[in-house]
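Progress narrative, work stream C.
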Amino acid sequence: MKDSTKSVKEAIDPTTGAITIPIYQTSAFLYPEGEKYRYSREVNPTVLELGKKIADLEKAEAGLAFSSGMGAISTSLLTLLRPGKKLLVHVDMFGRSLRFTKDYLSSWGVKVDVAPAEDEAMLTMLEKGYDVVMVESVTNPLLRVVDIEAIGKLCRETGCTLLVDSTFATPINQKPLEFGASLVIHSASKFIAGHNDVIAGLIAGKGDLVREIDMMRRTLGTSLDPHPAFLTIRGMKTLKIRMDVINKNAQEIAEFLESHPKVSKVYYPGLKSHVTYAVARRVLKGYGGVVSFEVKGNAEQALRVMKSTSIVVPAQSLGGVNSLISHPATMSHRTLSPEERKASGIKDSLLRLSVGIEDVEDLIEDLDKALSKV
C-alpha cells in the first residue's frame, strides 16, 4: 500500500465492528480476560494501534507511542546507554535534545561528543567508534539536511546504533530506516497529528530494539494517554494530503522570502542556495513545511515581524494545519547558551516559520505586510 492508503487504513474493532479505533479510556482491564492489557500505563488498545500505524508508515517491524517527543528521545537513549557508553550528536539540533544529552547523560557517566554542524566532521568523528549516534534528518531550526545515507553506511560498518529524529521530514518525505537507521523518532505533536492539539511522541524500528525500549517506557512511565493517541490516529489520516500542500506552500514562500528586500537570508532545503540542497535532493522526497529566515536588523526587528502577522500565529510549535512563526533564540532554543546558539548558526534576527495549509497567496501577503513594519 502507498503512504496515503496506510495513513487512512484502520483495524476494525473485533468486538463492535467500529470502523474507527475506539478510545479505551480505562486505567485497567478485567483479569484474566484482559491479561494482554492489564494496565493502561503498560498497554492500551488505542495507543497500541497508533504504534502499529507509525510502524506501517515507516516500513518498520514495530512502533511505539510516548507521552511526548522528548519522552520518546529520553526513553530510547536511557535504554541504549549506560555509564561508560559513547554517544555522538550534532550541535545544531533541538535545544532540549542537546540539553538532555550534554547535561543529563554526561552527568550520568555517558561519554557525549557533539559534532559541528556539518556532515564531514561527524563522519570523521564516527570513525573513532560510538555505541549510539543520534541525528535530526532535517535540523531545527536551520534545516540542514543530514546525509543519513552516508552516516547510516558508516554506522553499519562500525556497529553503532543510529537514531534519527525525523520530525521535520515525516514518513512522507523520508523513511530513515531505508538509509540504515535502527530507530526513527517523531514528535507526533507536529506534522503527524497535524492540528496543534496533541502532545505525543513515536518511535519505529527493529522489533527487538522497540520491545527493549517498551520495557523502559513502562518503567519510566512515559506512556501516552488513549485520548491523544486517538487524536493522533485521526490526524495521521490526512498526513499525506497535508504534506503535499505544505511542501508546495513552503517552497513558494521560501522563494518569495528569498527575493524580499527586508530578508537577508532564507533557509529551506528546496532552494538551490541552501547549503545542503544537493543532499536534500538525494535523501528527501519533499522539502518539508518549515522555512527559517533572517530579517535585516537584529532581534528587535525580527520580533516586530513576528508580532505583526495577522494570519500566521506567533507560537512555539510547528507542523499544524495553521501557520505558526517563532523566534528560536528566545523560544525553542532559549535553553542554549549564546556560544551554543552561535555554533548552531542561530542569530537573534532568525525567525522560524511553520507553513500550514492556508492559501499560499494569503500567507505571502501576510508576511509581506509584517516585513513592511521594519
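Work stream C, second folded protein:
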Amino acid sequence: MLSTHQSVSVSTSSVAPVYSAVVTVPLIVGLVGSGAPLAYLLALVPIVLVWAGMSENDDRQPDKGSIYAWAVRSHPVMGWIGGYCLAVTGVVATSGLAYVALDAWLPGLPAWAKALAGAVLIAVATAVSSTNVRITSAVQTAGVLVQVAAAVVLVSVFLRVGPTLTPMTGTATDWLHAVLLAVFAFWGFDAVYALSEESHPGVPRRAAAVSLVLLVAIFLVFSLLGASPHPDAAEALVHPVVVAGVVVSCVMALGSTLIPTARGVSAMAERGHLPSALTPLRTAEVASAAGAVAWLALALVVPGIFWDSIEMLSIFVGAYFTISSLTAAAHDRGALKVVHLVGAALMGLITAAALVTMFDPEYGETRIGDVGGVGLLAVGFTALGVALAVLVVRGRGASGGGRAVSA
C-alpha cells in the first residue's frame, strides 16, 4: 500500500510544476507584473475547493475510476462525461509533454525525430508505470527532487538580487486571464485519487494537500523571480539546473499523467461503458499510451491543431473538476454542501471564461475566419463527448446495464 510521501510524489509530478511555471509565469507577469504571485494565490482558492470535493468523494468511494466512478452511479451521463474528460486530458497532455520534453532537451531535432523519440518516451513511461506502483513512486520522487533543486536555485538568486519587482499592472480583464492561467497550472494534483485502491485510507486527501502546498511554493518562487527586472533573474531562469528541471518535469509527468487516464478507462470498461477488452489495467495502459502516440503524430501532420488541442485541455480539466464538486455536493449536507456548490460554481465560471477567450482568433495557432481554432476544437470535442455519453449510457440501459465499478 502507498504511503503519504509516496503518493505526494505522484500527485506533484503529475502537474509537471517546473514546466508549468516556466510556461505560465512569463504570461502572467506580462499581464499583471509583480501581481503574478497574487494571481497564483487567488487561483489556489477554487483549487482548494476542488480538493475538498474530491477528497470527500474519495473518502466515500475509493475507486481507481476517480471522477467517473464517483459520478456514474448517481448520474450515468455526467459520470461518463467526467471519464471522457479525464481520458481526453490524459491522452492529449501526455503527447504534449513528450514533445515539449524533447524540445527542451534536444531543440535541434526535426519534428519527425521529436515525434519518434516522443513515442519512445511514452512507451518507456508506460512500461515503468505498469510494472509496480511503488517503482513508479520512487522514480517520481527522484524527479520531484530535481524540480525542488531547480526551485532552490531560484530562491538563492532571489535572495541575492532582492525583491526588485516590476509594478503591479493590468486591467480587470488582464487579472481574469492571469488567474485563469494560474488555476489550470495546478492541474494534475488529482492523479493521486486514482490510486486510492492501492493507498492507505486518507492518504489521497493528505497527499494532495501536501502536493498543493509544494506546488504553490514552486509557483511563487518562479513568479517572484519572473517579475524581477534584475538581469540575474532572467539568467537564473535558464540556469542548467532549471532547464534540467523543465525536462525532468515533463518526462516524470508522462507516467503519472497516464495513471488516472488508464485507470479511468479500465473502470469505464468494467461497467460496460467502453469495450470490455479494455478492462484489464495493463491493456488500458497500453491503449492510453497508444492514443497519446497517435495524437503525437498530429505534430507531423497538422502541427497547428496539435498545439491547439493542448491549449483546449483546460476546458476538459475544468469540466471534470466541476462535475467532481457537484457530485460531492449531491452527497453532503449543511456547510460542506455549500462549500462544494461554491467550488462547482467557481470552476464552472472559470471554465466558461476560459472557453470564451479561446474563440479569439489570436488565441492559438489556427482559426476559421474570425473564430479561434482552439475554441472550435473544444466545442467539437465537447459535442462528441456528450453525444457518446448519451448513446453509450442509453445503450447500456437498454441492454440491462453493466457490472458495477469495483470499490
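The beta strands are 367-368, 371-372. No further action is required on this item.
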